[in-house]
UniProtKB/TrEMBL annotation:
It comes from Prunus persica. This is 65-kDa microtubule-associated protein 8. It is found in: Cytoplasm, Cytoskeleton; Nucleus. Keywords: Coiled coil, Cytoplasm, Cytoskeleton, Microtubule, Nucleus, Phosphoprotein. One of its GO terms (cellular component) is nucleus. One of its GO terms (biological process) is microtubule cytoskeleton organization. One of its GO terms (molecular function) is microtubule binding.
Length: 569
């Protein structure tokens, strides 16, 4: 209407209408874009809400939330409105669960810090840095933290109980030893003293210090008890030695009363104080001073007892120089009297024990000695040429000789048994068996050697007698003549007269045979065969050659030289 009234050009009309259409399209397009943006935002919010809800379900370990449909329907706004309450509920649960985790973890860190021995300022710094893992807020994880917390609480309670036990032990031991327990406890750590008013340190280092403190107090208790035991025994020994009356002993009855008690049984306060030990030591010194005058008498008494045991068993007696040194130490006071008496008692005990072990051997040694005496008597008796004469007491000697022969025949077996027993004793004891400071085995072996030499000497004498008897028989056969003619009788008389000067031949031969050594038996036999051959030659030439006597003397000299040749000693 306006364009008609105005008379607008058709071309202009079309241009304006086209501009209007373009502007309308632009406004519509903007509205559509805004609507699309709003829809996309709603989709994103819904997706984020669903993702957060799902993440919360997973972190809280819950499968679903009551009241929320499994599948949502309707518009986007309706879906978003339906999930928002559930999401808000899950956020509240998450916050509550995180607070629970933070509380449990805070307590765990606190107790761990107490166990580690950290101070409160260090713990405050750590408590502000508690980090909760929001990706795992499940009840299972929370139960694990609560279990760990309960374990730490139990460990804390156990450590507190141990600390209290250590403190009680320190109080008891300090009361027994007479020391200040509060100073001992404060020295370990000030927090252990109730007067300080701070939390007790229950760390491993404090427990170790408390344990070492209790052990050191126990060691000190044991050391003092051992010292009082030693002093109590010394007092008892000195009282018995000095015959101290019962009234004087009563003042130290608390010391001697500890002799039968162990360290665990001593619990009376003040029973092991240093003052008691010092009093006991002073009393022991006083009694030691009184005892010194009687020590020499006791020492000589025990020394005589030891010598008597050694003499009785033929054992080695302590040297006189050692005895003199001990006496000098007693006079100078450089030796503990109790130790000296204990040492003497130990020596006597060892001597008795060794004498007991030697008893079986010593009995056989005594039998051997007796048999040797009888053997010597029997040898002297055998050399007596008048032993068979009728005299007073001769029959008693004969009976004794018979008994002596029986006893002497048992000597070899007795010596062999003695040697075996002595070797066994020496192997067991790892020492030499001495008899009057001489090795018994050497005595037995020397006796065997001498006995063997005697037997060989007797054998040589018997063989020499046999050879001498054979030579005598040969000589007698050599000078036997037959009575035939007067000329032969004259020759015989001259021969006899000549042999009358050769009578010493037998003696010279016997002397030559006696000089033969133990290895000259064969040479003696050769001499006998030589004499037999000489006899035949002289039987043929005796009456045919002049100077028979001188010739026989030369032959006799050659015979003697044969017996006393290079083989004779």
């Amino acid at each position: 209407m306006i364009w008609n009234e105005v008379g607008q050009d058709h071309f202009e009309r079309e241009k304006v209408l086209l501009d209007l259409e373009q502007e309308c399209l632009e406004v519509y397009r903007k509205k559509v874009d805004a609507a699309n943006t709003s829809r996309a935002r709603l989709h994103q919010e819904l997706a984020e809400a669903e993702a957060e809800f799902t993440h919360l379900l997973l972190s809280l370990d819950e499968r679903s939330l009551p009241g929320r449909p499994e599948k949502m329907a309707g518009t986007l706004k309706e879906q978003l409105d339906s999930i928002t309450p559930a999401l808000r509920e899950m956020r509240l649960r998450k916050e509550e669960r995180v607070n629970q985790f933070r509380t449990v973890q805070g307590q765990i860190q606190k107790i761990s810090a107490e166990i580690a021995g950290q101070s409160e300022s260090e713990y405050d710094d750590l408590s502000s840095d508690i980090m909760v893992n929001e990706n795992d807020l499940s009840l299972k994880k929370l139960e694990e933290y609560q279990t760990e917390l309960q374990r730490l609480r139990n460990e804390k309670n156990e450590r507190l109980m141990r600390v209290e036990q250590y403190i009680d032990a320190v109080h008891k031991l300090s009361s027994i030893l007479g020391t200040d327990s509060s100073m001992v406890i404060t020295k370990v750590h000030p927090s252990l003293n109730d007067l300080c008013g701070i939390t007790k340190n229950i760390s491993n280092s404090i427990l170790a210090k408390l344990n070492s403190t209790v052990e050191s107090l126990d060691e000190e208790k044991q050391k003092r008890l051992d010292k009082l035991h030693h002093l109590g025994k010394a007092l008892t020994n000195l009282w018995n030695l000095m015959d101290t009356p019962y009234k004087d002993r009563q003042s130290f009855s608390h010391v001697t009363g500890l002799l039968s008690l162990s360290s665990a049984e001593v619990s009376d306060p003040g029973s092991l104080t240093l003052n008691i030990i010092q009093q006991a030591e002073a009393e022991v010194r006083r009694l030691d001073h009184l005892k010194a005058s009687k020590m020499k008498e006791l020492f000589f008494k025990k020394q005589n007892e030891l010598k008597e045991i050694c003499n009785k068993s033929h054992m080695e007696i302590p040297l006189q120089s050692e005895t003199d040194n001990l006496i000098n130490l007693i006079n100078s006071g450089e030796i503990d009297h109790a130790d000296l008496l204990m040492s003497m008692d130990q020596q006597i005990s060892r001597a008795k024990e060794e004498a007991s072990s030697r008893m079986t051997i010593m009995e056989k040694v005594e039998k051997w000695m007796l048999a040797r005496d009888e053997e010597r008597w029997l040898e002297e008796y055998s050399r007596d040429e008048n032993r068979y004469s009728v005299s007073r007491g001769a029959h008693k000697n004969l009976r004794r000789a018979e008994r002596a022969r029986v006893l002497v025949n048992k000597i070899p077996a007795l010596v062999d048994l003695l040697i075996a027993n002595t070797k066994s004793w020496e192997e067991e004891r790892k020492k030499t068996f001495l008899y009057d400071e001489v090795p018994l085995l050497a005595m037995l072996e020397e006796y065997n050697v001498l006995r063997q030499e005697k037997e060989e000497d007797k054998q040589r004498q018997r063989e020499m007698k046999k050879v001498q008897s054979q030579v005598a028989v040969e000589q007698e056969n050599l000078f036997i003549t037959r009575p035939s003619t007067s000329a032969r009788r004259t020759s015989t008389r001259s021969v006899n007269g000549g042999f009358s000067n050769a009578i010493p031949l037998n003696r010279r031969l016997s002397l030559g045979l006696q000089q033969l050594g133990p290895n000259s038996i064969n040479s003696g036999t050769q001499g006998i065969s030589f004499i037999k051959e000489g006899k035949k030659a002289r039987g043929q030439k005796m009456f045919a050659r002049p100077g028979l006597v001188s010739h026989l003397r030369d032959e006799t000299a050659s015979v003697v030289s044969t017996f006393s040749g290079p083989q004779s000693p």
